[in-house]
Amino acid sequence: MSTATAVHSLWTTAADGKVDKIPAPHIEYAQLAPTLIVVGAAVVGVLIEAFVPRKSRYYAQVFLSVIALAAAFAAVVALAADGYGTTKAHIAAMGAVAVDGPALFLQGTILLASIVAIFTFAERRLDPEAHGSRVDSFAAQAASVPGSDSEQAAVKAGFTTTEVFPLALFAVSGMLVFPAANDLLTLFVALEVFSLPLYLLCALARRKRLMSQEAAVKYFLLGAFSSAFLLFGIALLYGYAGSVQYAAIADVVDGTVQTVDPALAGTMGNDALLLIGGAMLLMGLLFKVGAVPFHMWTPDVYQGAPTPVTGFMAAATKVAAFGALLRLLYVVLPGMRWDWRPVMWGVAIVTMVGGAIVAITQTDIKRLLAYSSIAHAGFILAGVIATNADGISSVLFYLGAYSFVTIGAFACVTLVRDAGGEATHLSKWAGLGRRSPLVAAVFAVFLLAFAGIPLTSGFTGKFAVFKAAAEGGAGPLVVVGVISSAIAAFFYIRVIVLMFFSEPKPDGPTVAVPSPLTMTAIGVGVAVTLVLGVAPQYFLDLAGQAGVFVR
Amino acid sequence: MENLIALLIAAPLLGAAVLLCGGRRLDAVGHWLGTLLAAVSFGLGVALFADMLGRSADNRAVHKHLFSWVPVEGFQADVGFQLDQLSMTFVLLITGVGTLIHIYSIGYMEHDENRRRFFGYLNLFLAAMLLLVLADNYLLLYVGWEGVGLASYLLIGFWQHKPSAATAAKKAFLVNRVGDMGLSIAIMVMFTTWGSFAFSTVFNQVGETGWGRNTTVGLMLLLAACGKSAQVPLQSWLGDAMEGPTPVSALIHAATMVTAGVYLITRSGAIFNQVQDVQTVVVIVGAVTLLFGAIVGCAKDDIKKALAGSTMSQIGYMILATGLGPIGYAFAIMHLVTHGFFKAGLFLGAGSVMHGMNDEVDMRKYGGLRKYMPVTFVTFGLGYLAIIGFPGLSGFWSKDKIIEAAFAKGGTEGWILGAVTLLGAAITAYYMTRVMLMTFFGEKRWNEEETHPHESPGTMTIPMIVLAFGSVLAGGLFSINESFVKWLEPVTSFSHGDSPVSAGVVTASTIVVLLIGVGLAWAQYGRKPVPVVAPRGSLLTRAARRDLLQDDFNHVVLVRGGEHLTRSLVYVDHTLVDGVVNGTAAGFGGLSGRLRKLQNGFARSYAVSMFGGAAVLIAATLLMRAV
């Protein structure tokens, strides 16, 4: 079909005045309840900032956030119990959002992780009181220039940035939609909805504010850069398929759709657009999961951001981004898996090996954990590449296990402090096991879980992912994965050795006694780590049942 | 009745537990308790023996399944006992001689402050040895085997404050480990081949199994026997083991434990009978050790070491007999029992001499003791006559039968073996006469001011007298109407063989070589005075004094070789293995340091890296389609 005819037909059709009416959208509010509750709570949080007196805001925000997230989690459980994860799985909101097993599983994981993360956000006992008021990890007044008089005035006045709670809720709402998005535009909107609040949150550290702001700017710039790739990829895919709907694109990829949208006659079905657009889309998502070579923001941002935000980001963002990646590869692009699988192999290998190797020489605990998260992104990618049912469920399980370990580990990092705030340089952790055996032991449990030692959730998750990959024909990838795990074990164990077998330094850090909030966060982390390590079967079954995408 | 079998083992085991855990409170009664429990065990043994005699020859063996030890799917191990004529013989020997030696030790160890511990170890030995001979499967036998090894180690090193004793204990333990390894390999091969450890199952299936498996099992069992019974090439520990208290030498290293190898081969006769080649090896080991021990015995001036050489040589006779198959098993066991009597008696006599001579062991500093220790002289003398095979005494009957059986092997082999056993008999007569003359005859060579030889107390002389009766009578009793052979026949089977030489000729030649041996010794040590300082001697004498260079051989070949091997392995480990490991680690570290520099903190270079990554990603995707 020639282009001229197509354009002509478009024009003539328009001239005939047969314009379709825009139909009123049909929204299944009940099935979108988890997201709606969180968005609603975030809006209320903004109103609280506007109308509630400063003194009460903290309590109101913490209460609202926890209740909203718990209610959203209850809604997820109710939906799952109602069968929306399995038999009743379908596409809601006019094809924009999927309600199915992976979506509900990941939403549940994100919500639980967020509740725990909110606890660490709300922690106010780590630093001594300043000018008679309790302080948390966030800047007194984000807008004041670091080191300026206005900053000092804000500190003196006992201001706290309680906006972090609505920001976090907005981010969570975006994350909830991200793995459930069923068209590319919803995907993009969700991405921006959770990214923008995170950029802001990264800039809000109370200590080392310049570093924090630098991290936020870097994150924002690079995030915008990757969003541009993603958006361009969406445009190319639309040009290829004539639709942004996942199912519609998949049909075109499979070749089941023969009718061509006259407006796109010149591009539709052009494989170059599919391949380039698909690759750009993948790049946007790989940026969010922190895969090599799109990982370079990770260490800087993880180090600069306030540690509770780092924990939240490292856990929840990764869950959401991997959810979206899974859906993209399993629902939209399975027809071109012979094209993307080798490429993803390469990405997974450099991510696993690169993350593990660079982590060896890190001297800052937060950067170390950042590189560790890169290596783990590589391990999860191995499961993604499996392209079988076990691949989906193993990735779901891994994400659930990993997020709690991560939040717990970063919560431990907030406890080790000296005069300058958190003592993140590794040399200061020497001999921690003698001074605070409990904290060191708990942190050691998390490190062992990261390293994938049996009886921790890390082992179960890694085993499930590698097993799925091996069965999916990615044996060499598993070999590389195991070698990377061995390299990674070196730096995890090194920290344990440092904590337990080195002499404590005289000017070493002190370990703050946290409020029950952080204790709960760490306790939940340890409990999940051990339960998923010792008796994982129930949760493996759960992930297995949830591991079917709706199309 | 078979319920008593477990009690047989339990009594001394209880004694060991009580004596070793009881502490100093039991010091006053410990030796009596230990002796009592040994006697109880002997009493039970006699009762079981009487019960067994009451049944016909085919119904004498009894089995007692005690409990299931390892009840695992595919791996069944039971604790069960088998009391047949062979086990019964050992039970009576072990508990009988054991009880006598317990009594002897009461006097011998009187001044030792650790006497209670000594009796605890002796009881432990009895329990382990009884377990060894009563087990109805190889795994349980192995437990007893290791148990006697442990008891032997503890008793050799009983005076561990002496470095020589501690070293000797270690040496015995290490050499025995080599043999034990053979037994454990044999058991593993048995399990993989026949799926069982039980004697009955193994022996029933052995005939249907291939040559390779049977040969492996046979050779490994022989290795085990060599270790425990101090046969060439694992003989080196026995001489040093004489560092232990003399009752230990008598009980463990003469009468019972060192004969465990003979028991093992006889018990496993069904396996050895299947593989002629292994039997040939057994015979060679026996023949070599027979001469080896005898030659060593001729050169030693230490009375206990001379007797140790003799023990090695006599066990060589037994091993040789077991290698002959059904024509030899019964005679091996018969010689084992008579040897148990006269060798234990000789050792106790040696202990009695040492007791009266301030623990002097050098025979060149004895001489003329017959007047000072009449009881010891008579009992030792009877033991001496028994071992050299004086007509009518125990050794005559049993050794003569082995020599006959050696000829009965037939062919060239038979002639060679017959000659070797006859030569051994001559050397035995020589070195035993030498011991006798140097100790009890000639002029005094000891310092009369420092040493006051005296007869030992009753607790020591009575066991010696009892054993002397055994030395004199046992062989004759066993030979009346071939009663011993008939007794054992249901277990070991028996055939007369086909001797090219008549029994009378063998007996006559035995007596002739006996006289030659005695005469030579008389010429050298009876007619001439014995020099107090040993003369330099011929090359052979000097080699024999050094145990025919066995330690030198072990040192050069095994110790040096082992050291070289470990050193080269350590070198390989350090350079190659550690080199690779550390090199890998250093390599990754260096790579890490270099890759780290890419992370330079500038958002612009991060963006470039992302851009490049995206370009590669797109290019790769396109390339995949193109390929």
TrEMBL record, chain B:
Gene3D superfamilies: 1.20.5.2700. It is a multi-pass membrane protein. The keyword Transit peptide does not apply. Its main location: membrane. Residues 69-119 form the NADH-Ubiquinone oxidoreductase (complex I) chain 5 N-terminal domain. The keyword Membrane applies. Coiled coil: none annotated. It comes from the Bacteria. It is found in: Endomembrane system; Membrane. Residues 135-420 form the NADH:quinone oxidoreductase/Mrp antiporter transmembrane domain. Keywords: Membrane, Transmembrane, Transmembrane helix. The chain crosses the membrane at residues 29-50, 86-106, 118-135, 181-203, 215-234, 246-266, 278-297, 317-337, 372-394, 414-437, 458-480, 500-523, 606-624. InterPro entries: NADHpl_OxRdtase_5_subgr (IPR018393), ND/Mrp_TM (IPR001750), NU5C-like (IPR003945), Proton_antipo_N (IPR001516). PANTHER family: NADH-UBIQUINONE OXIDOREDUCTASE CHAIN 5. This is NADH-quinone oxidoreductase subunit L. It comes from Streptomyces noboritoensis.
